[in-house]
């Protein structure tokens, strides 16, 4: 059963979720983990893809799309198949993916946007009812 971490960001900008996902992914990747970034749609995945290349001037996180480069340590995916990635799931969708239980850790990134906060509450309730260990991290600044 995965540890589920909710990262509460002090921003209402939905794009702040992607920036934080880049930072979290870089840290996990440098530690040698395989990361699956679950996106809600192709537009979000394209934006995240671009941000992973440029979020830090001195480095980038090598990554690929789950469908075309499933062997990459960091993949951006859509749909119901996480492939062979089971270390860290960064969920950027508004619902818990069916494969979440296959991961050692799950990260839910939350901003102050009302729709995202409501979805996070529902996800929290789901995880709690399933007995997942939960932790929230209220970040002061990005």
UniProtKB/TrEMBL annotation:
Entry-linked Gene3D superfamilies: DNA polymerase III subunit chi (3.40.50.10110)
Biological processes per GO annotation: DNA replication; positive regulation of DNA-templated DNA replication initiation
Pfam families, per database record: DNA_pol3_chi
InterPro entries given in the database record: DNA_pol3_chi, PolIII_chi_sf
A GO term for molecular function: DNA binding
Record PANTHER family: DNA POLYMERASE III SUBUNIT CHI (PTHR38767:SF1)
Protein name in UniProt: DNA polymerase III subunit chi
UniProt source species: Pseudomonas syringae pv. avii
Origin organism lineage: Bacteria, Pseudomonadati, Pseudomonadota, Gammaproteobacteria, Pseudomonadales
